[in-house]
Amino acid sequence: MSNLDLQEGSVLRLEELSISFGGLKAVDNLSFEIKEKEIFGLIGPNGAGKTTAFNCITQFYRPNHGKIYFRDKHGKVTNLIDHPVHEIIKLGLVRTFQNVELIRELSILDNVLIGAHIDFKSSLLAQALKTKKAKDEETALRNEAIEVLTFLGIADRMLLPAGGQPYGILKKVELARTLMCHPKLIILDEPAAGLNDIETVNLAKVIRTIRDKYGCAVLLVEHDMRLVMDVCDKICAINFGKFLAVGSPKEIQRNKDVQAAYLGETEADQ
Amino acid sequence: MKIKKPAFNLKKNAHLNYVLFGAVLCLVPLLIELGLLRNSYLTLVGSVIIYSVAAIGLNLLLGWSGLISLGTAGFMGLAAYISAYVTVNLKLPFEVAVLLALSIPLAVGILVGLVSLKIEGLYLAIATLSVSEILRKSFEEFGDITNGFSGKTAGYPKLLGFFQLDKYGTYLLLVVVLVGVMILIHNMINGQMGRALNAMRGSEAAAQAMGVHLLKYRLVAFALATSLAALSGILYIHFIKYTYPPTWTLGMSLNILSAIIIGGVRNIYGTILGVFVVFAVPDLFLKQIPYFGAMPGFAYIINGILIIVVIMYYPYGLIYLGNDMKKLWGKVKAKVKP
Ligand SMILES: Nc1ncnc2c1ncn2[C@@H]1O[C@H](COP(=O)(O)OP(=O)(O)O)[C@@H](O)[C@H]1O
Ligand SMILES: [Mg+2]
Question: For the domain that residue A77 is a member of, what is the CATH number?
Answer without folding.
Answer: 3.40.50.300
